[in-house]
Amino acid sequence: MVVDRDNFNNKTVLVTGGSKGIGKACALRFAGAGANVIINYAGDDEKANETLRLINRKYPGKATLAKADMGNPIEIDTLWEMFNHTGNFPEVLILNAAYQQKMKFEESNWELLEKTFSVNVFGNFHLAKLFVQTCKAKNIPGKLIIHSSNQGEFVNPTGFAYSLSKAALNHMVKHIAYATSKDNIRVNGVALGWFDTEGERTFYSGENIGEHAGNTIPIGRIGNAEEAADLAFFLAGDQSSYMTGSLLRLDGGYALSPDATT
């Protein structure tokens, strides 16, 4: 993928869940292309500051932190109000933050679905709407990228609540894209497969991840966060200018032969 790395010079990019995993890789990717990156995170101050220092060592002055729980509408409003004070509105919003607790349908309860949907659906909706409203009001050519999952399409027995929330996100991509198609705002989603991130390592060891990916993913390996960041970068840039409402797969061929044992 050939991309003009000057594409995002001095533009502002907001990445939710940007302190680790795929969000961190996205923040690094855009900062390296000259963007001013705002790293949203919910709770781990130490990890967030570590990511901030890393980016600013490589690309001085390109990263700032913005703490807000994506499951809390008041904190999301406060986050957005920060932009009203500074006038430095993001032209790119990457909705990457997610909550997952592995439970089968039989084990799931109201509280789990409420927590999962509050972050993965309601929080994403709320921040996306603030972004779209601002882009329209200020005539900003916004780019919205929503990170979904192949679990939104395939049955993963241990991911009941998470899968339902990602199925909702898949449809949200299309609805928001349709609503904004005449406003110079582009909205695209990515159905992510299995990636080796800190989040996945809370469920599996590195050895288990490598072995299972090798046996079940057609391409023969797990994805790395930088590959997801490259696709987000493409979707936010001019080379994808004719794309909106698309839900792209980045799953190593998982959809060709889905395995439900994870």
Q: Mean pLDDT, rounded to whole units?
A: 91
Strand order of the largest sheet: 3-2-1-4-5-6-7
Instruction: Provide the gyration radius in Å.
Output: 18 Å
The poorly predicted ranges are 1-6
- Main sheet makeup: 7 strands, parallel
| Count of helical stretches | 7
User: What is the end-to-end distance?
Assistant: 31 Å
Helices and strands: which structural class? Answer: alpha/beta
Order of helices and strands: EHEHEHEHEHEHHE
Record field, number of beta strands: 7
| Coarse morphology | globular
Proportion of residues in extended strands? 5-15%
Percent helix, as a range, is 40-55%
Quick overview of this protein structure:
With 262 residues, the protein is of the alpha/beta class.
Description:
By secondary structure, the protein is an alpha/beta fold. The chain has 7 helices and 7 strands. A 7-stranded parallel β-sheet has the order 3-2-1-4-5-6-7, sandwiched between helices. β4, α4 and β5 form a beta-alpha-beta unit. α1 (21-31) packs across α7. The longest helix has 29 residues, at 110-138.
Relevant terms:
single chain, 262 residues, alpha/beta, 14% strand, globular
